[in-house]
Amino acid sequence: MSDGYAGDITPKEAWEMLRKDPKAVLVDVRTHAEWAYVGLPDLSDLGKELKMISWVLFPTGEINTEFTDDLDDQVPDKDATVLFLCRSGVRSIAAAKAATQAGYARSYNVLTGFEGDKDAGQHRGTVGGWKVDGLPWVQK
Question: How many domains, in total, are found in the chain?
Fold first, then answer.
């Protein structure tokens, strides 16, 4: 167990957990703006639905004080494996910790997130992350 949650996994490990565990859920904790303009993981090949609960609110950047209530609504099974994904794997750590404190003992952080780390030019989308790892995603 990591510091306050079940652990850190790569995007490819997250995909495998989602594929193998029928109760596993992916929660994207980015903002509405990120979902709209950057894209979303596509779980349709797995017959699963992405859960979308912002950890911080856009445009203020304030913590979503209803996060765990929203999680309870969207993932009522506290025994489920819950995988948290953000842009780069930072907000998802906070979400995994909050979920663990709320009774979700199998809460994981997806390292490098959806867009990955910054490259030498300070751009995301070329170093790690869900998209760079070639996992399914859509832009709506």
Answer: 1
Contact 90, 50 (CB under 8 A): no
Domain that holds residue 100: 7-134
Cα angle 35, 41, 110 (rounded to 5 degrees) comes to 100
**Mean pLDDT for the stretch of residues 12-27:** 98
Would you say residue 139 lies in a domain?
A: no
Contact 111, 89 (CB under 8 A): yes
Mean pLDDT of 129-133: 91
- Does residue 2 lie within any of the structural domains? no
Token pair 């894209």 is found at: 39
Three-state helix/strand/coil letters over 25-81:
EEEECCCHHHHHHHCEECCHHHCCCCEECCCECCCCCCECCCHHHHHHHHCCCCCCC
Biggest alpha carbon–alpha carbon distance for the chain: 42
- pLDDT 10s digits, 63-116: 999 999 999 999 999 999 999 999 988 899 999 999 999 999 999 999 999 998
Please check whether residue 80 lies inside any domain of the structure. Answer: yes
